[in-house]
Known about the structure:
The chain is mainly alpha-helical. Helices cover 70% and strands 0% of the residues. α2 runs antiparallel to α3. The model has no long low-confidence stretch (mean pLDDT 87).
Amino acid sequence: MLLQFKKKNSAVDKFYRSPTLANYRLLRQELADDGLSIENIFPDLDAFLAWRGRAYLSRQIREIESNKKK
């Protein structure tokens, strides 16, 4: 599924190349506009972030998502 959405300069491509909190927000917005969620593209986001050496982002993203649900 990832390759289908990984077009040059898309939010998916930016997040894949540089997983940052800002790129995560862009990705979430772009996917929401298409009626999708992060889980559609990255079924195991924690494993992806650990693989990219950004495991600390998992905690920050979970905090954002939990605050969004409140």
